[in-house]
Amino acid sequence: MSTAIKPKHIGRNISRIRELRDMKQEALAQAMGTNQQAVSVLENSETIDTDKLIAVAKALGVTVEAIENFSEESVFNFFNNFYDNSSSQGNSFNQGMNATFNPLDKVVELYERLVQAEKDKVEYLEKLMKGK
To answer: Which residues are within 8 A (CB) of 92 and not within 5 positions of it... i.e. 6 or more apart?
Structure first.
């Protein structure tokens, strides 16, 4: 029994990355300056020449290495680790940032400033009317 490692199917990797990026074949084709049928042929190819692979990587916004080394397991591990690490501390955009003010107070403050601005406008217009 042989345990030879099967080579990665580059076309399948391109297809999965495209799907994960929520991109249709037509959109990838347009980004590459080709047509949907050419993308379909690429995705069904086990190997792809380097120039085309570079163009695909650029259109997908990933590196050539990301396409060559893509695996479903690594994607799931990344997202599992991301959510495990961020759930108790917020996410990567708001880590450690908690509001130190009451949003309702800010709304009231803004409303009071708007009312004052309107009062100032009325006062100014009344002065103009009296001047005529």
So the answer is: 82, 86
Structure tokens at 129: 């009317």
The closest of 18, 58, 61 to 39, measured between CA atoms, is 18
51, 55, 60, 63 alpha-carbon torsion, rounded to 10°: 50
Please report, for residues 22, 53, 70, 88, the alpha-carbon distance to residue 66 in angstroms, rounded to integers and kept in the order given.
17, 11, 6, 29
- Give first-to-last CA distance, the chain, whole Å: 104
What would the pLDDT profile of 113-122 be if each residue is shown by its tens digit? 999 999 999 9
Supply 126's token pair.
Answer: 């009344």
What angle do helix axes 36-43 and 25-32 make, rounded to 10 degrees? 110
pLDDT in tens, 59-115: 988 888 888 888 777 666 665 665 555 545 555 555 555 557 677 888 888 899 999
> Which CATH number applies to 10-86: 3.90.1150.10, 3.30.300.30, 1.10.3660.10, 1.10.260.40?
1.10.260.40
